[in-house]
Write a structure and sequence with these properties.
single chain, TIM Barrel, 2 domains, nine-stranded mixed beta sheet, eight-stranded parallel beta sheet, 11 helices, binds pyridoxal-5'-phosphate, Alanine racemase, alanine racemase activity
């Protein structure tokens, strides 16, 4: 006899990821980069990358050369671009593993050129298309492009791409993207003037891909869309994960029972409670509306009382569940279980924060 329960588990679903890639590809003639930063928005970089590539993604993207090396170690040979690189660009690793790097300032390029690498580092020039975040400001473009051109001619780097990012695509309104598209047109003209041939130009993320073909250029970079999130809210994509937890305790309680810290919920009738071993340390938002529920055996049950660090309590009405019964905290949609979009609404946030916030002690599995 074993006492084992199935612990809280986040299951990644490759089929919806593939379907979402096919959906995005049906909207564009450009090639598609699958963005798997932040461990593929919490879903696991390698399995998401594998599913996306099998469905037609021809590039991968992430925010650190180290993450890209891990993707190579998982056996993927697809071209990979990294940007941001919070530990700095590791030129040797990027050259050794054929990892393209985005360079967003003259400083970043100079630092890269100070390093020795076994081969020319593949570079995408990252220009600010209008959000004053990463990306080279327009007044420095000429310097960056001239310096990159010289290093390219010397064989130190191989400039392959031109990257921008849309500030307002989530509005789903092409007019909001027009200034960024115009800036990219100026950047493309500047690199051609500097003597580069046609570079691979890319600007759009999920929202631009789904709502504005004028932003697609040569490649689109889809991250949120892989895991079922269209930030513009225009396209219903399929969720790509399921979060489950076992009932660890279940009991009958009388009317007037105070639940959890500070008794913030008091029962108004006789009922049953189930305890689930997941809390804010696992990414359950602490601030949630009273509508929040989970699904158990096809029924929906409200979360009552405060979310604790490690546990939540659900009111299961007349039902008393056996220890070990599986509760679904969120699923991909199409059932009575809540979705990440429900959790986003209940917590006043966006679905991205739900999936990227799932804690490290939640077990991961692949369907
Ligand atoms: C995160 C990111 C993406 C992907 O954005 P989604 O809206 O999640 O598709 C694309 N490009 C850059 C530069 C990013 O940082």
């Amino acid at each position: 006899m074993t006492a084992a329960l199935t612990p809280p588990t986040l299951q990644t679903l490759p089929d919806p990821i593939a379907a979402n890639v096919v959906r995005a590809r049906s909207r564009t003639r450009a090639r598609l980069m699958a963005v798997v930063k932040a461990d593929a928005y919490g879903h696991g970089a390698a399995p998401v990358a594998r599913a996306a590539v099998a469905a037609g993604a021809s590039w991968l993207g992430t925010t650190d050369v180290g993450d890209a090396v891990a993707i190579r170690a998982a056996g993927l040979r697809t071209p990979i671009l990294t940007w941001l690189n919070p530990s700095g660009i590791d030129a040797e690793a990027s050259a050794a593993h054929a990892i393209d790097v985005a360079v967003g300032s003259v400083d970043e390029l100079e630092t890269l050129l100070l390093q020795r690498a076994p081969a020319a580092v593949r570079v995408h020039l990252h220009v600010d298309a209008g959000m004053a975040r990463e990306g080279c400001p327009e007044r420095e473009w000429e310097t960056l492009i001239a310096r990159a051109r010289a290093a390219h001619v010397d064989g130190r780097i191989e400039v392959r791409g031109l990257m921008g990012h849309l500030p307002s695509a989530d509005r789903g309104d092409p007019a909001a993207n027009a200034p960024a598209v115009e800036r990219m047109r100026r950047a493309r003209a500047a690199v051609v003037r500097a003597g580069f041939g046609p570079l691979l130009a890319h600007l759009a993320a999920t929202s631009g891909t789904l709502t504005d073909p004028a932003t697609h250029l040569d490649m689109v970079r889809v991250g949120a869309g892989l895991v079922g999130i269209d930030p513009s809210g225009r396209t219903a994509l399929t969720g790509a994960s399921r979060l489950t937890a076992p009932v660890v305790h279940s009991r009958a309680v009388a009317v007037g029972t105070a639940i959890g810290y500070d008794g913030s919920h008091v029962t108004t009738a006789e009922t049953h409670l189930s305890v689930l071993p997941l809390g804010y340390a696992d990414g359950i938002p602490r601030e949630i509306s009273r509508d929040a529920f989970v699904e158990i055996e096809g029924l929906t049950h409200r979360i009552v009382g405060r979310v604790s660090m490690d546990q939540i309590v659900v009111d299961t009405g007349p039902r008393r569940y056996a220890r070990g019964t599986t509760a679904t905290v969120f699923g991909p949609g199409g059932t009575t279980a809540p979705t990440i979009h429900d959790w986003a609404r209940w917590s006043g946030s966006i679905a991205h924060t739900i999936v990227t916030g799932i804690g490290a002690r939640v077990r991961r599995s692949i369907a």
